[in-house]
Amino acid sequence: MREEDQLQQPLTPEELMHELRFKATELLLREEWQESVQVYTQFINLCQDQISVKSHQNHPDPDLLTKLQKSLCLALSNRAEALSRLRDLTGALKDCDQALEIESTHFKSLVCKGRILLSLNRYSMALDCFKTAVLDPQASGNLETLNGYVQKCKKLEFQSRTGAFDLSDWILSGFRGKSPELAEYTGPVQIKRSELSGRGLFATKNIDAGTLLLVTKAIATERGILSSEDSGENARLVMWKNFVDKVVDSATKCERTHHLISTLSSGEDEDKLEAPEMSLFRPGAEEIGELNEKLDKVKILNVLDVNSLVEDSVSAKVLGRNSDYYGVGLWVLASFINHSCNPNARRLHVGDHVLVHASRDVKAGEEITFAYFDMLSPLSKRNEMSKTWGFHCSCKRCKFEEEMCSKQEMKEIEIGLERGIDVGSAIFRLEEGMRRWMVRGRGKGYMRASFWAAYFEAYGSEKSATRWGRRIPAVDIVVDSVAEAVGCDERVLKVFMQAFKGNGVSLVDMEKSLKLGRGVHGKVVKKQQALRSLLDFGTHDA
Ligand SMILES: C[S@@+](CC[C@H](N)C(=O)[O-])C[C@H]1O[C@@H](n2cnc3c(N)ncnc32)[C@H](O)[C@@H]1O
C-alpha cells in the first residue's frame, strides 16, 4: 500500500480514542479548560459507544471492557476537573458521580468531588470523599493536602452546625493573612410573610444583642477602588457590569445558584411571592431537581437591583480590607432581610461571607431588619432615601414619626437645625417637647436618633457642654435610649466611648461599652481583647 493511501485510511476507534485522549490531556495540562472539555466529551462519547458495542458481542473480552471502563472513568474525572475550573459545578459533580459509579474509590474523582462539595457548602459529604481518598495508595504523595481538606471539612461542618464562629485571633493579628475560612450557618431565623413588604426574616426565639443569625457566602462579589475623578462613577459602572456578568455566569452554570436566585424578589408583585423553606439555605442542602423557572438576564438584572448589597454601608462593617475598596455582592439569604428605620441587626463582611447578628435584644417572632440607608437622620431625609430604593418605608418608627413630625414645633426644630441654630437649643426644645407630648420609651429613642447629628455635635463640643450643661440629657441616657430603639450603631458607640475617655473609663462604663460593642460587632468577636481593639476609636468624627 502506498504511503498516501495509508494516510487516508480512516482511524480505527482505538486509534481515534488514543489520539483524543492524548490531545485532551495536553489541553488539560495547559489549563485550556474549555477546549479540554470539548475533546474529553468526544473521547467519552466514543468510549461509551465502544463499551456498548463490545459488551453486546457474542464473546465479549472482559479485559478489553475493563480497560475501556478504566479509560472512561479517568476521562470523566479529568473532564470534571476542567468543568470545575470553569465553575460548571453541576456538570463537574455529575461527571464525578459517573466516574465513581464505575470505580467507587477512584482517587482523582473523590478529591475533585470533595472539593466541589466543599465549595457548595456540603461539608459532611465532602468529608466522606476526602476520608475515603486518604485511604487510597495514591494519597501517600498528597497526604498533607488531603489531611488539610479533612480538617477544613470538620471545622466547617462544626461551625455550620453550632454557629461557633470566633474572629478574635484574626482581629488581634491585625487582620494578617487571608480572611478566615467560614462555613455557612443558619441560626434561629425563618422566612415568613412580612408586614413591611413581601417576605422577611423572623426570629424563631428570644435572642440577645450580638447573637449570630446567619452566615452566608456571596453568589458573586465585585470589588474595586473608586477613582476620585468622576466621583468613581465610571469605575462603579464597570464594576456593576462585571458583577452582573459574574452572577449570570454562576446562575447558568450551577443549578443550585439558579434556584436560589429564582427565589428572590425582582421588585414586582412582592406580596404574591412565596416564602421559601429554610432547608433550602442550610449547608448540605441537596441539589435541586428540575427547574421550572427560566432566569433571563433581564430578570437577573431586576433581582440584582432589588437585592444586591454594598459591603461598606451604615449597618455593615468590612473586616480586614482596605477601606478604599468599594464592594458589591449578592448574598441570597441576607436578601430576605427587609429595611427598617428601627433595625435590630447589622452585618459584618469577612472575605466573601456576610455575617448577620442582632444589634439589640430581639423577641421571638420579631422581624429581623437592618438599615439599607442611614437611620440616624430625620424622617424627611429617610423618606427621600427610601424613595431612591423604590419603596415607601412602612416601619413602626416611620409611622410613629409621621404623626410627631406633623407638629409645627418639630418642623421648626428641623428647619432651625438646617439653618445652623445652636444644637444645644434645638436639643433642649426637642426634649421639652417630648416631655409635653408625653413621648415615652422607644419613642424617645426614635426622636433622638432622628436628630442624632445635633446630639453628636453637642456632646462633641466643649462650648455646648459648658453652655447647656445639665439642661440637655447626659450622654449615657441618650446613648441607651437610641441603642434600645434603633439598635447599636458604630457612631453612637463612638460618642459613648469618647465621652468616657476624658474622664477615665469606669468598670461600669467599660461593661456598657462592651455590651454596645457586641451589638455593633456581634458575638463572633469572642475575646474581650479583640473587641476592645475594635472599640479603640481614636477620633471623634461622625
Ligand atoms: C432585599 S428585598 C427584601 C425582601 C423582600 N421583601 C422579599 O420579599 O423578597 C428589598 C425589597 O423589599 C421591600 N422592602 C424592604 N424593606 C421595606 C420597608 N421597610 N418598607 C417597605 N418595603 C420594604 C422593597 O420592595 C425592597 O425593594
TrEMBL record:
Transmembrane domains' residue ranges: none
PROSITE patterns named among the record's database cross-references: SET (PS50280)
CDD domains tied to this protein: SET_SMYD
Endpoints of the signal sequence: none
Pfam families per UniProt: SET
Domain SET: from-to ranges: 187-373
Protein name: SET domain-containing protein
Provenance organism: Populus tomentosa
